[in-house]
Amino acid sequence: MSTFIFPGDALPVDPTVPIKLGPGIYCDPNSQEVRPVNTGILHVSTKGKSGAQAVYIDYSSKRYVPSVNDFVIGTITGTFSDSYKVLLQNFSSSVSLSYMAFPNASKKNRPTLQVGDLVYARVCTAEKELEAEIECVDSATGRDAGFGLLEDGMIIDVNLNFTRQLLFNKDFPLLKVLAAHTKFEIAIGLNGKIWVKCDELSNTLGCYRTILECCQKNDVATFKDVAKRQFEEVVSVKEE
Amino acid sequence: MQFQAEVGVLDHVDGSSQFVSQDTKVVCSVTGPIEPKARQELPTQLALEIIIRPAKGVATTREKLLEDKLRAVLTPIINRYCYPRQLCQITCQILESGEDESEFSQRELSCCINAAFLALVDAGIAMNSMCASIPIAIMKDSNEIIDNPSAEQLKTSLSVHTLALEFIDGGKVVKNVLLLDSNGDFNEDQLFNILELGEQKCQGLVKNLRKIIQDEISPRLAA
Amino acid sequence: MTENTALDTIEVHPITFPPDVLARISPELSLQRHLSLGIRPCLRKYEEFREVTIENNTLSRYVDTENVDAKNNILGSNVLKSGKTIVITSITGGIIEENSASIKDLDDFGEDELYEITKEENVVANYASIYPVVEVERGRVGACTDEEMTISQKLYDSVLHSRILPKQALKVKAGVRSVNEDGTLSVLYPDELENDPSNETNLKMKRKWSYVLYAKIMVLSRTGPVFDLCWNSLMYALQDVKLPRAFIDERASDLRMTIRTRGRSATIRETYEILCDQTKSLPLMINSQNIAFASNYGVIDLDPESQLQDPDNAEEEVDIDMDEARPVLIADLDTEAEETSIHSTISVIANAKGNYTQLTLVGAGAKITPEMIKRSLLLSKVRANDLSTRLNE
Q1: What compartments host this protein (chain A) (predicted)?
Q2: Which of A33, A88, B34, B83 is most enclosed, with most CB atoms within 10 A?
Q3: Residue C262's pLDDT band (boundaries 50, 70, 90)?
Q4: Structure ipTM
Q5: How does the average pLDDT of chain C come out, rounded?
Q6: Taking 60 as the threshold, does the pLDDT of residue C264 lie above it?
Q7: Is the pLDDT of residue C103 over 60?
């Protein structure tokens, strides 16, 4: 079930069933009234085990607000005695990355990241009143979980909803389309950043241009043609 | 109210819009939530930095007063408690004023309010409700109430008003009067007539705004 | 198991504060507690205004009606006291040369006819405003605050749209100073010689001047919103403004001067030196029927949860808790508690007859109902009626 909803509209949900608040839904602490606060497509799901109805709004935005368990790509902007200062988006409040949040970290074994490096990490705490924290380790097992320094490659800034699609929607065809053209490494940050790296710079550029145009058009049907055209263009320029 | 509006006109900000009504044209950008300067930071809520730039020349006290009124309208509709210790920058650039700037500012103000609302929606900032604003004039002699008066009509008016209303429940229910700024010579009856006509016109406007927003945003979310 | 439940229970002790401490740490709650008793933190009733006392023209050059103090350049003044706040308004002026293209030439009409014409053309373009500078003293110096700027601009806009100052009233009816046959200087004014038409035509001048009025408004010990105090003080001061007469020197009237503009080209321009008469003055002809007075109101919901409850009357307690938040109208906002906790405000400029020239309604808090608006308009009318009599006392 999905409807387009605006801030302040009445929520079309069953009032007798408990509600689980997702993104875009706010419960006023004074009146205990539950209202949507964002503009987008309302999703109501009753599939959860608890029997409660989970309500959230899929909305479009470009500014990332940290939320626990999100995968993000950040830039190291400063070092402190026990943590890095990491910027997830220009002008946003920075988040902290503790030296202990790396695999095999100990007091003596410090990570060797430098200012300006890119890291792929997971948000581990996100209280809106406090500075958010990220980690480069699977905190449940304490082992490496594919996070850490992103070397070389290229960063693409896109909409937040596009990265959500890319990461969570199994049927989203973009990665398959790209794979038809080249071999690549990719990291998708829910803070609206995508990192790609190929063996050859021209292929990286092809990926970059394809992803950017696909994000702008956001029309799944055209992805194949876009990728084909962009890669051809890059190749033709290279040959010249 | 006749108008053209566009959402998402600028690439390098989080939200933007352009609102054109008759000869008045405003472009608005929203950036936020971002890190505030230490003096702007509020411990429990989102700080708002509101800037209005005039069509010509540099900003004066006239724009300061407009900023003050715009702030009064936007503060209650933004859900500021969602973003404590953060800042939201809202900048309105008036491209064409569409009225005699030395005497009136009603047209510019209501266009700024509508443009800022659209830009906030585009930026995905959490909001409590929707808003819509119109300028109104009461004409000399005829005492006719005109919504969205032209620059010429303003000049020959007896009183001029800017009305902004807050809507909930699908744009059908007026939650509150966000702003009614009246200047000139008017009486109580006229004031209530203005509120009545204004409610009707704002409701129509909010309906159109919803359509514009939906047309722009739903393709972005389609997958 | 039993141990666990014991740990889960937490005893909550109510914390009590003296009233003045509570007012500092939670002005909102303190205000609600006061309102639940039917009074406000300043001990006024909901719709009670502060007493206002005024002194007019105590600072101006016309204090002594016989001898004009030539060194004093204040043309009209007012000192207004309301509660702890004092507002000092002093009106000064200047003379500018008019750009003749933009002004309708209405010089050939007499005073009464002029009034008729301005009444007919009752559009904003025929009215001027005053240039106010509001200064709220806070014990420190620095750039002007946003509040000072917005109040100044709002005063300017309101004077303009209230149609109080016709442009015509600010025109300089300049005289000519000439040397008489016996060597003494005398000034002739065209309007003083009406029975002698030959003289009048001689004194016709090509150039036109008009007065500009400035108001310096100082606010001392600000305790709450001050726009309405500034406006009322300005209104009182404006009603007593006298404009000094001005004349040009006969000899200067055919003076020629070379003016260089940025060293590029030289132009020759005729200049008149306009001088102010040290003794003679004319009262400023304002549209006195448009004089109106300002008042402000706040709307706040009484929060049933913060009501002070009577311990002897436990049954009533329940009733109060069941109540919905009830909005009340508070007149003449004062004190920090009211200013920071009341977000819905109504500011009205009204005259005693029930005509309104300015209304600002901001609904950022409690819902402003039509009844609230009606009530505030009525109170404004009564208040304006009261304030308008003060000047003649």
Answers
A1: Nucleus
A2: A88
A3: low
A4: 0.95
A5: 82
A6: no
A7: no
DSSP structure string for B185-209: EE-HHHHHHHHHHHHHHHHHHHHHH
* CATH hierarchy code of domain A71-150: 2.40.50.140
Which residues of chain A does CATH 2.40.50.140 include?
A: 71-150
Phi and psi, residue B46, nearest 5° = -75, 130
Q: Do B34 and A41 touch (CB under 8 A)?
A: no
Fold of B4-221: Ribosomal Protein S5; domain 2 (3.30.230)
- CATH architecture for the domain at A2-59: Beta Barrel (2.40)
Comparing A89-103, B135-149, C66-80, C302-316, the range with the smallest average pLDDT is: C302-316
CA–CA separation, B69 and C153 (whole Å): 12
Q: Structural domain tally of chain C?
A: 2
**Does residue B126 sit at the A interface (CB-CB below 8 Å)?**
yes
Check if C340 contacts B (Cβ < 8 Å).
Answer: no
Which residue from B14, B77, B222 is facing A62, i.e. has the nearest CB? B14
β-pair type (C165-166, C242-249): unpaired
Q: What angle do CA C343, C344, C349 make, to 5 degrees?
A: 125
Residue C201 banded pLDDT, cuts 50, 70, 90:
very low
**Which residues on adjacent β-strands are paired with residue C114?**
none
At residue B92, the pLDDT reads 97
Closest by CA to C328, choosing from C375, C384, C377, C362, is: C375
Please indicate, yes or no, if residue C333 is contained in any of the structural domains: yes
Q: Where in the sequence is the domain holding C217, given as residue range(s)?
A: 52-172+208-241+284-289
pTM value surpassing 0.95: no
The alpha carbon dihedral of B99, B105, B106, B108 has a sign of positive
> Number of H helices and number of E strands within chain A?
4, 15
Q: Do C363 and B103 touch (CB under 8 A)?
A: no
Fold that domain A154-239 belongs to in CATH: Ribosomal Protein S8; Chain: A, domain 1 (3.30.1370)
In Å, how far is B51's CA from the nearest CA of chain C? 12
Whether C161 is covered by a domain: the verdict is: yes
Are B186 and C355 inside 8 Å of each other by CB? Answer: yes
Residue that the structure tokens 């005063």 belong to: C155
